[in-house]
Each structure stands twice: as C-alpha cells, then as structure tokens.
Design a protein that fits this description.
Shape: globular
Low-confidence stretches: 54-93
Strand order of the largest sheet: 2-3-1-4-5-6
Helix content: 25-40%
Largest sheet: 6 strands, antiparallel
Distance between the termini: 15 Å
Order of helices and strands: EHEEHHHHEEEHHH
Strand content: 15-25%
C-alpha cells in the first residue's frame, strides 16, 4: 500500500490567510486547530515565476472556521511581512524537489504571523522517505529534517511528527494516536490529490 503527501500545514487561521492570497489553494482542516493545503500542480504553478499572490480583492473558496477578527489580524501581520526585501525573509533555499522559489518567499512572509510547515512523504510497501521543515519569524526555524528509505526514525519521531510538534500538535494520553502524524489526522487520505477530491 502506498502513501504520498506534499503539503503545507499551519494554524487554521494562517492557512486561511494563505488560501485567500492564492486562489488555487484548497485548504482542508486537520485536528488540533491545524489545517493543510495540498501541494497540487495547480497550487504550485501559482508560484512559478512569482510569489503566488492573488490580485487585490481575490478570495478563496476555503474556510478555516476561525473568527474574522483573528484571521484579520493574522492577515495584517502576513501582509506587512511580505513587504520586506526577499533577502531578509528567507534563510536560503530548502531542498524539496517540487518546491518553486516563489513558494519559499511566501512561506517566509506568512511565517511572520505564525509558524508554518512544509511536509512530504512517499511510501510504498511500508518503506519510503519523509522530509519536513518549519518556517517561523521569516526564516527556516526547524529542518529540513529528512528520513531516508529503510532508515529508522530517531526517538524524537519522524520528520513530519517533529514539525507538527513544533506547530503545537500533541499526542493525547490514552488515545489511539501513535504520534503527532496520527493525532492531527494525516492518515485520512493516502495521496495529495485525495485531500482535494475526498477519495
């Protein structure tokens, strides 16, 4: 059985801000106040040759369910940060094969309001790879953390669980979740496209 994921994950209200700026984004809720934007070809195409920002007045079809006041203040912080020069926002390129340069600039800008992560996983038959990183305060704050094929996870957990922990995710005592990956519901779908289609 396979599992494949390329996505952005952050607090639901910040993800709503990001989705409002990038019409191709299709945000989906996760547990524990987090949300996910699947890195679909349409979403990534918005960042090739630019920073993916929508024209003024554009809105997204996604909704985080957060209060208007909270989202507004987060939007103001993220918008203000995007006016800073690119060199001051990013700590350097991050090695995700599918990662357009414009996306990294936007992650750096959005992270001025709250931490946001980029995650990827590719598994087949129980073996595979993970890579994850967190942006905070305009720069890469954690990672990229990588686990290779056939490589056991360290005691602190998988790359994705570690960045989820940085975002505030917890494994509840007495629950069925084995780690933060399970606790926020990343097992709900087994492919990036399925987060959009619901399959």
């Amino acid at each position: 059985m396979s599992y494949e994921l390329q996505a952005l994950i952050g607090p639901a209200e910040l993800v709503a801000v990001a989705a409002a700026e990038v019409p191709a984004a299709r945000p989906r809720p996760l547990a524990q106040g987090l949300a996910l934007i699947p890195a679909t070809p349409e979403f990534l195409a918005a960042f090739r040759g630019g920073d993916g920002a929508a024209a003024s007045g554009s809105t997204s079809s996604g909704s985080s369910g957060s209060s208007a006041g909270s989202t507004s203040s987060t939007a103001e912080a993220a918008s203000a940060s995007s006016a800073a020069p690119a060199a001051s926002r990013a700590a350097g390129p991050v090695s995700f094969d599918w990662f357009p340069d414009g996306l990294e600039r936007r992650l750096a800008a959005w992270s001025k309001a709250a931490p946001i992560a980029c995650v990827e996983a590719d598994y087949f038959g129980g073996t595979g790879t993970q890579r994850a990183a967190v942006w905070a305060d305009g720069r890469v704050d954690l990672g990229p953390i990588t686990s290779g094929e056939f490589e056991a996870f360290p005691p602190e957990g998988s790359p994705i669980s570690r960045v989820l922990r940085r975002l505030g995710a917890q494994v509840g005592e007495g629950g069925d979740a084995r780690d933060e990956f399970d606790a926020v519901g990343l097992g709900a779908h087994r492919a990036t496209a399925s987060w959009v289609s619901g399959d």
